[in-house]
Amino acid sequence: MTTTIRNVAKQLDLSITTVSRALDGYDDVAPATRKLVARTARKMGYVPNRAARQLRRQRTDTIGYILPTASTGFTDLFFSEFIAGISDEAAARQFDILVASAPPDSDTEKELYERWVMGGKVDGIIVNRVRLSDWRLNFLSRRQVPHVSLERSLSKRKFVGIEVDSFSGIRELVTHLVKRGHRQIAYIGGPTDLKIAHDRLAGYEAGLQQAGIAPNRALVLQSDMTAEGGYGVALRLVRSSNRPTAIVCINDLAAIGAMHAVHDSGLVTGHDIAIAGFDGLAEAAHTQPPLTTLEQPVYSVARQLTRMLLALIAHEALEEEQVFVRPQLIIRASTGGE
Amino acid sequence: MTTTIRNVAKQLDLSITTVSRALDGYDDVAPATRKLVARTARKMGYVPNRAARQLRRQRTDTIGYILPTASTGFTDLFFSEFIAGISDEAAARQFDILVASAPPDSDTEKELYERWVMGGKVDGIIVNRVRLSDWRLNFLSRRQVPHVSLERSLSKRKFVGIEVDSFSGIRELVTHLVKRGHRQIAYIGGPTDLKIAHDRLAGYEAGLQQAGIAPNRALVLQSDMTAEGGYGVALRLVRSSNRPTAIVCINDLAAIGAMHAVHDSGLVTGHDIAIAGFDGLAEAAHTQPPLTTLEQPVYSVARQLTRMLLALIAHEALEEEQVFVRPQLIIRASTGGE
DNA sequence: TTGTAGGCGTTATCAA
DNA sequence: TTGATAACGCCTACAA
Description:
Number of helices of chain A: 12
Helix content of chain A: 40-55%
Number of strands of chain A: 12
Oligomer: homodimer
CATH topology of the largest domain in chain A: Rossmann fold
Strand content of chain A: 15-25%
């Protein structure tokens, strides 16, 4: 059996109270006693039982994150970087992170929120891939569960979290393409209920308008934000009668697929057609040709989000409740290079 | 406050015992009572408190997984796919997964194992990136903690888990390259204490030997399994006096970096130099040119590992304690195509 | 078929 | 400075 606080107390012929307080660093314990207790506990391999502690303290020292899995086996570097950020920051504060996966807006997702929140499995939750109208944020607000989100929903007034300025980013990208002479600029988006899909599309339209280019519905298509999806959609664009000279993609994965489609059509990315993405994941720099993209600091954003959440949980004052980040336009050869 | 079983009982003027048993589906509860209880509980939003249940049942319904983060901000699609597999399978069985990240063999890693195991935070653990001599597996065995691993260590006799036959895979790849006329075949490996690094290198050497090609130490280099790492190491190979005609990489990420290095040296992958990787992640198919690789079913392996672990935890008999999987050689244009 | 009561391992209140 | 004791919310032997 694992050693409990009772074992330690018995071993030392002390009360469990004293042992508990000695270990938790209370100052009303004799220094000698404290040292002795600490040493013995370590020697006996004592670690406080989490369930018992949780039950008593009414907190879990755990935060939750649900991976939005569009399809089974689906993956995106964005998420692994995001998770790494969360768990590194959480680990530094002795918090654990609970991860599950569920398709966006599914029953599974709803059940997980129920289980975690009502069952007191987590002290707080990190939400990303926010939808325009997102029941998760309302649910968490109503239940007064500490939470932060990457992106905000339209429906919610109070928002604590980080927002990456997709709109300005894409607009800047489009402006850049226009400067290089492009007029036929296509756009491959994502699920329309996503906040980022909404913002990025708006940025694209704003960029065109600014340049006095009339929008062309035939040049705006939707993908599922995977490489496969980007490939299929781009193929249609490339083979259509009025082929665009540039394609702006909602994320790097779709852009990578698009580049592949361009190549398979016997064209050269960056020469015949310009391609650009959004995310700035490690791979983007190693595609052939290297991908022009809007880089967002996913890892550090995840860390900062976690930091904000931990502050909320501890009822500490937040320096900033809302942080805005501008993605950085990185111009590479896929749009002709700089 | 959240609703407890006591609230539900009081509301119905029943004892908590009856409520508990009704909810848990015992058959010594009157059908009418059961229905009433179920309905009321749902209406009141009752969800059993996990901590209390854990404490009482002495299990957590949670499994642990520690992300091996070589450096901060490091990511690999392999892991996000792996996590997706674990959490999908776990979710289906109402298990949660606890994730943390720690550099391999670090103090952090050790502390996490202590906390999780001794503190009873998890019922079992999934281990991957196994080292040749791996204290984690010994630790878990000694403590009798249910665990499964992807790959086995040399030191451990009893092994429950899955092993991908890296050795045969790479050997087959080398044989294929030799058939296509390559004699100067280089190898970019990974950290030498890793089981997969050991196996893959051995596979490479066996492939050469089989073909009667004398090993050349200058052609065997080591990377950190990232794209950046692969890029740097490959650059040295490509620019060396006796440039190889083919480079076998320990994983896709390194291979992607290597392709980039080849291109930056004014050469063409698949024409001047053949490049191949290992993993078969989604991106591999979309590189330019598409990457020859040994595909391993990461997602389904993760699911199966999880299934095995859950069986161990439940003391169910395992169909197979050790599963061996052969990676599939997928030949694409990066080695000249099929 | 339902209820009573004890305890899982901690922490916190209060008294000594 | 230390110790006895009562919760935290749930499950389950046992009694009714």
